[in-house]
Design brief:
disordered N terminus; mainly beta; 45% strand; Big_2; Immunoglobulin-like
């Protein structure tokens, strides 16, 4: 750097002068000593994201001053607040709110000043969900999000002041948790300084109520929650998006292929949706921002009735299924993994047994638990780190068309299902048609029986915001004749239970007004559960469940009273 060059020259000058004096030369004058460095501006304050240019002026013993900006060594004492981006110009970039010392060093002489970086200004607040539901003594959790001048967004739920003009509104115990003292409609508000926002609040009783229908009908081959809180529903080549804030449906661009049923839709880490299966090897990706489809690399194996799980790495693990799209087909033991960045499929090892109509649940440690779908009472775990499979301890019963829900404590609740080995030509018992609920603890590799009444399959199981599980609808087999195969029918169920893992017990809540089976259940922001689709469905209903945060809205299509194969 220039300052070191100057000091080196000075040292040489001293040596030369000493030699000259020794030779009898006249007195030689030494250059002035650097005594101090002044850094300006003094104690500046800038907003987060802005830059600040500093100047270093050296004061010498003879009273002279020299601009040393491009020759000193600049440093920020707190790199998390500001960093030097151009040393020659003394330019500093703020990277976080707070205070740091900006120093300029020239050998043993230095100077500094304090730089304060202010947090970006809060521009607006938003209450989410935009329409809030609570019950009498039934709380729901809401959030307040702040938008800052730099474009950033932050959760301010615990920092804002919550209020309502209604005396029927009760707050707490957690920030943003609201409940009612009486039925009615009012508004709630969140404020922080001079910035505020409001949202409508409906204090309702446990009930079912109608909801709008998509223009394309209620069937749902696949459904997935998008990153913005909307829900994408696919049926054949047609798609609809439900906006829970506006409470309306809109059509998507048509899917390039028509796979029929047995497909899956998986939300990718970047917000797009991966659509695979239906007996085809072709793969499509939907971009909800642009409402467009793009074709991705084909799967290694065509399949349907499989599972597709998003891994922590952003890859998607596709497991099992059937080999083609007909009414029958060989179950598959193969698995494959999709890398959406590289657009590449790769083998993910084979399971020990072929499985279809099974479940796949990503565990808290990133592994994937695959349950049922075969003729044995077993489950397997895939470890993405090693790309290998391992069997769990034996289950209590084999099953297919069940549900598997990851609980907050890391256990998995498996409910319902039919035994894949039962023979419709024989008059079997009800135990052959539905399997008992079980809990799996991956830390202990142990299965235990759980308490969830009403045997069922093709039901939904939704994890509520308070950690309980809402088990709704489904189907059961029954005989309506003397026991011939043609006398076997499937009936939809209206029973709804809530399982509490803290107590290990189930509580019956309001039944569906009409029975429903084969639907899709999606948990929405704010504690709602959207359930759509099923067999013979015409309209949908909205269910509000008492829980913590106790308002859960389940929208479910209304099927016929009973239906047959």
């Amino acid at each position: 750097m220039r300052i070191w060059t100057l000091m080196t020259l000075r040292a040489c000058f001293v040596l030369i002068c000493g030699a000259l004096v020794a030779c009898g030369a006249d007195e030689i004058r030494l250059p002035p000593q650097l005594q101090a460095i002044d850094v300006t501006p003094a104690s500046p304050s800038i907003a987060y994201g802005q830059q600040q240019q500093f100047t270093a002026v050296g004061r010498f013993g003879d009273g002279s001053v020299v601009d040393l900006t491009n020759s000193v060594r600049w440093k920020s004492s707190v790199p998390g607040v500001a960093v030097v981006v151009d040393a020659a110009a003394g330019l500093v970039q703020s990277v976080g709110a707070g205070t740091t010392q900006i120093s300029a060093d020239a050998g043993s002489v230095s100077g500094s000043t304090t730089l304060q970086v202010r947090a970006p200004a809060l521009v607006s607040l938003m209450v989410e969900p935009a329409a809030v539901y609570a019950g009498v003594g039934i709380a729901t959790q809401i959030a307040a999000w702040g938008q800052y001048a730099d474009g950033s967004r932050a959760d301010l739920t615990a920092l804002v002041s919550w209020s309502s003009p209604s005396a029927a509104v009760q707050w707490g115990p957690r920030p943003g948790q609201v409940s009612g003292l009486a039925l009615g409609v009012t508004v709630i508000g969140a404020s922080l300084g001079a910035v505020s926002a409001q949202a409508p609040l409906s204090i309702v009783a446990e009930a079912w109520s109608p909801a709008p229908n998509p223009a394309g009908g209620n069937s749902a081959d696949a459904a997935v929650l998008l990153q913005d809180g909307r829900v994408l529903v696919l049926k054949g080549r047609d798609g609809d998006i439900y906006d829970p804030v506006a409470n309306r449906w809109s059509a998507t661009a048509p899917l390039p292929i028509d796979p029929g049923s047995g497909c899956s839709a998986t939300l990718l880490a970047d917000g797009r949706v991966l659509f695979v299966g239906g007996g085809l090897s072709g793969v499509e990706i939907f971009n909800p921002t642009t409402n467009t489809w793009s074709t991705a690399a084909s799967m290694l194996t065509a399949r349907r009735d499989h599972t597709a799980s998003l891994l922590a790495s952003g890859h998607v693990l596709v497991v099992g299924g059937r080999s083609f799209s007909g009414q029958t087909g060989a179950a598959l033991a193969t698995a494959e993994s999709f890398d959406p960045v590289a657009n590449l499929w790769s083998p993910a090892g084979d399971m020990s047994t072929a499985r279809t109509l099974h479940t796949a649940t990503r565990l808290a440690d990133g592994r994937v638990l695959v349950v049922g779908g075969s003729s044995e009472a077993g489950a397997e775990i895939h470890d993405p780190a090693t790309n290998t499979w391992s069997r769990t301890s034996p289950m209590h019963a084999e099953r297919a068309q069940h549900t598997a829900t990851l609980l907050p404590d890391g256990r998995v609740l498996v409910v319902g299902g039919v035994r894949p080995t039962w023979n419709m030509a024989l008059r079997s018992t009800e135990q052959d048609w539905a399997s008992p609920p079980e809990l799996y603890d991956p830390r202990l590799d142990r299965w235990t029986l759980a308490s969830v009444p009403a045997a069922r399959f093709q039901h939904s199981a939704s994890l509520l915001p308070d950690g309980r599980v809402l088990v709704a609808g489904g189907a059961a087999w029954y005989y309506f004749g003397p026991g011939l195969p043609s006398d076997l029918a499937r009936k939809a169920l209206s029973a709804v239970q809530v399982y509490d893992p803290a107590t290990g017990t189930s509580t019956g809540v309001a039944d569906l007004p009409v029975a429903s089976a084969g639907h899709r259940a999606i948990l929405l922001p704010g504690g709602k559960t959207l359930v759509i689709g099923g067999h013979g469905l015409e309209t949908r209903l909205v269910f509000r469940d008492p829980g913590l945060p106790r308002v859960v809205t389940t929208e479910v299509a209304v099927p016929n009273a009973a239906f047959y194969w």
